[in-house]
Amino acid sequence: MEYPRLGRSGLRVSRLIYGNWLTHASQVEADAAEACVRAALEAGITTFDTADTYANTEAEKVLGRALAGERREGLVIATKCYWPIRPDGAPQDQAGPNDHGLSRKHVTEALHGSLRRLGTDYVDLFQLHRYDHDTPLEETMEALADLVHAGKVHYVGVSEWTADQLRRGHALARELRIPFVSNQPQYNLLWRVIEPEVVPACAELGLGQIVWSPLAQGVLTGKYRPGRPAPEGSRATDTHGGQSMMQHLLKDELLEKVARLRELAEEAGMPLHHLALQWVVQQPTITSAIVGASRPEQVTDNVRALEVELDEDLLARVDEVLGDSVKRDPSLTRSPQRIAEFG
């Protein structure tokens, strides 16, 4: 395991980060989730990514219990806020008017809630899960500055912001003297929309890229086959969120190309998911990739992807197979105009 610095900061994160979106308290029971976290620690993963919205705060609780007893200084714990959080037991559409967004009220209360659930006095990285068009950016960044200066947050970052939004946020962070160090975008062989604008902006600003969905929700494992139903128990059959997130990836035309990628990977002596993961982490602009798991052996197996080598010929053949199936349009990096649409 390598531990690169996050952007231009002094914070070192593991090359693979363990994340619990769509798994803990959703697809995976608590005992299995804790076993996955244990496997991650044993494999050298020191960085853990979660968010208050995952399983409506339950994922943070599971992660907090799984990490209890670990030496806190040896961990990097990252969480996020923005999306609606509803009171315990309330229906999905009954979040309160201030239970979402990036107002001073919600950012402050969200962080304190995350600290309680995670069982820690501080988080190493607190990220804004999307850009809030309804709240002045100055208000959001000043709230973050207060949390940093109070010692409750060490570093701040964002997720799925455009290049212009990143530049505006970074300028305010410099004025407020807080360490704005990371961007968390979606990025994989099929989804490269950050390359034209976001990647150059992050390089200019000194932001590290912690990317999510490096395996395209599992599609780049090759387990979804054209013309066949999704495997039982897979993310595509998860009615708690995975199924709806994956529909655009389960088209036969795309799955046929992924099947050809699988053949290329096997010819090169590796499984497809190792090829896909290594492709992401070897990009010079990427700091780390977030991986999830429903079983401990998946964690161990994903770490082995760091050992494979991809030569230029293989990379060229991969791009040839995928062709115009790769999404590159930078306008696809966006936040909802009105969060109420998602409440």
UniProtKB/TrEMBL annotation:
A Gene Ontology molecular function term of the record: oxidoreductase activity
GO CC, one annotated term: cytosol
Family matches, as InterPro entries: K_chnl_volt-dep_bsu_KCNAB-rel, NAD(P)_OxRdtase_dom_sf, NADP_OxRdtase_dom
Residue spans crossing the bilayer: none
Record-linked SUPFAM superfamilies: NAD(P)-linked oxidoreductase (SSF51430)
Pfam family, one: Aldo_ket_red
Entry keyword annotation includes Oxidoreductase: yes
Record keyword Oxidoreductase present: yes
Domain (NADP-dependent oxidoreductase): residue spans on this chain: 15-321
Keywords: NADP, Oxidoreductase
Protein family: Belongs to the shaker potassium channel beta subunit family.
Protein name: Predicted oxidoreductase
Native source organism of the sequence: Kytococcus aerolatus
